[in-house]
Amino acid sequence: MSVTTDTSAPSTTGRSAAARPSIAGAVESSDKVASHLHPEGSFLVDDHPMPTGLEEIWRFTPLKRLRNLHKDAELVAGGCDLRAELADGVTLREVAADDAVVGSSGYRPSDRVSARAWAAASTATVLTIPTDTVVEGASFLTYRGLGSPTATAGHTVIVAEPFSKATVVLRFEGSAVLADNIEIVVGDSAQLTVVSIEDWADDAVHHSTQHARVGRDAGVRHLAVSFGGDLVRMNTSVAYDGPGGQAELLGLYFADAGQHLEHRLFVDHNAPKTRSNVDYKGALQGAGAHSVWIGDVLIRKVAEGIETYESNRNLVLTDGCRADSVPNLEIETGEIAGAGHASTTGRFDDEQLFYLRSRGIDEEEARRLVVHGFFADIIKRIAVPEIEQHLLDAVEAELRQTVGVPAVEVSA
């Protein structure tokens, strides 16, 4: 099934954030987050100070390149064409901003850009997987920017009802200046995979907040892929609706000269016997390439018996790159099954290169094989064949641009 929706027309009918309805069944911990690193959420734009770059949540972001998304300049709805290819059993609809499904993830904007986008979006796109539905194949939502320099806002809600199973792929293409909120609601005992691919043109700016609420004994797998764009800043967060929930957050990014790719993650273990695993890998090449990865896991007092691990690994291919990687654990109870984190940033493994070259493989091909091997385990976990091949081709295209001798600048 293929559905095309034009969301390009500017709109001035976005509802005030203060007018949003209260959310029945919202995750209580989303109202007040006891994290030292994750600000309390609020729908009111004025509750979020204008960023200066000195704040913890903004200190790595080049604010001048946000194209005024964080300021008081007009932010309008639309700016992208939406094309949908839906698997059998999956439905898509557009609802008003005050519809009950909007906000059903329990998310409250934790920064000024997200709050502005929430207030400006006059409608939301809602994709639903019905109860007890096991979907064969993936559903695709492709957002294509129309090249307008006007800052725009969007809102998408993905609902996997109880006992359902599905895969949803979000693709961002073309040129746009976009701030959006994506809510992911996973019902009890449902299993949902969401793949978000940033494949923008070189001049695009995208600030995306993607929040998942995971029900009792449910599971969500979220894969963030960033290749395109001038500046991409993605905030991914998870909270739980009951015990037994599982979250796997995977990421893959490749920063070229001048690109800024920033991924910030927050896992809120607000229920007992929940699990999370975070695994992000990135490569960098070219002068001014900059990647940022901030991981934060909050384990609340009530979250006994949880298990969590977060990892970020960066591979620097040329001179002039910078990788910032900061893992964090905030633990309020000692009654946990396990918690840990790891972060590494470095050049090619000389032993790997030596081994391959000693087998008659030239240096350029050896480097290519090492990079493909570096990304392979995450790509294989996607389980969407056409996406896997697309990512392999994208990595290969990036590698064809690699020149020079690897060097590294690390900040943590």
From TrEMBL:
Biased composition (Polar residues): 1-15
Superkingdom of source: Bacteria
Pfam families the UniProt entry points to: SUFBD_core
Disordered, as annotated region: 1-31
Domain SUF system FeS cluster assembly SufBD core: 150-374
InterPro entries on file: Fe-S_cluster_assembly_SufBD, SUF_FeS_clus_asmbl_SufBD_core, SUF_FeS_clus_asmbl_SufBD_sf, SUF_FeS_clus_asmbl_SufD
NCBIfam families per the UniProt record, alphabetical: sufD (TIGR01981)
Family: Belongs to the iron-sulfur cluster assembly SufBD family.
Name recorded for this polypeptide: Fe-S cluster assembly protein SufD
Origin species: Microlunatus panaciterrae
Lineage, top ranks: Bacteria, Bacillati, Actinomycetota, Actinomycetes, Propionibacteriales
